[in-house]
Amino acid sequence: MVLFASMLASGDNLQLASVKAVDQNYPLVGGVELRSESKNIYVKRPPDLGQVWLDLRLMDILKLEVGQTVSIGDADFIVSHSILSEPDRASNSFAFAPKAIINAQDLEKTNVVQPGKQGKIFDSVLLEKKKNSFLAKNILEKTKQPRR
Questions:
Q1: pLDDT value at 69 more than 60
Q2: Which among 71, 129, 130, 131 is positioned nearest to 102, based on CA atoms?
Q3: H or E segment at 101?
Q4: Which end of the chain has the smaller Cβ count within 10 Å, N or C?
Q5: pTM to 2 decimals?
Q6: Cα separation, 12 vs 103, whole angstroms
Q7: DSSP type of residue 30
Q8: CB crowding 3-23: b at 16 or more within 10 Å, else e
């Protein structure tokens, strides 16, 4: 998962948001509760390519509805759902900003995450209940190596 702050645009409306680019394993635990037009759904997958899920607050600020287009960096996305809840909501440093979730495969076309710009990469690890903290520490030590 890659987390970064970016301006989202819809017409003349702009808003800083916390954007999360997630892969096919998202969410690792639990699910995301979404609203699409008139019904709520619970999913265990990322958004479809070219689509974005937005906080209700973000949709209000940008004056967007499901089915409309929003720009993130150099890419346009169709708003497919509004986010009602997500299992990892409070676990990041951009938690104060309204949230947008895109598919990780769409990240490159935004041109937002580049050298010199701030972003965070998170790797989630799910351990079996019987495994101990030593194993978790071992896994974390191996992931401390810098990414290239």
A1: yes
A2: 71
A3: strand 99-103
A4: C
A5: 0.79
A6: 25
A7: S
A8: bbbbebbbeeeebebbbbbbe
The conformation of residue 31, written as its DSSP 8-state character, comes to -
Q: Is 58 helix (H, G, I), strand (E, B) or coil?
A: helix
Lowest mean pLDDT among 6-15, 19-28, 135-144: 135-144
Q: Which residues contact 90 (CB under 8 A, 6 or more apart)?
A: none
Alpha-carbon dihedral angle through residues 116, 113, 95, 42, given to the nearest 10 degrees:
-170
Tell me the pLDDT band of 67, cut-offs 50, 70 and 90.
very high
User: How many C-beta atoms lie closer than 10 Å to residue 30's C-beta?
Assistant: 12
Is 46 in contact with 23 (CB distance < 8 Å)? yes
Structure token pair of residue 148: 């290239």
| Residue among 67, 56, 19 at smallest CA distance from 34 | 56
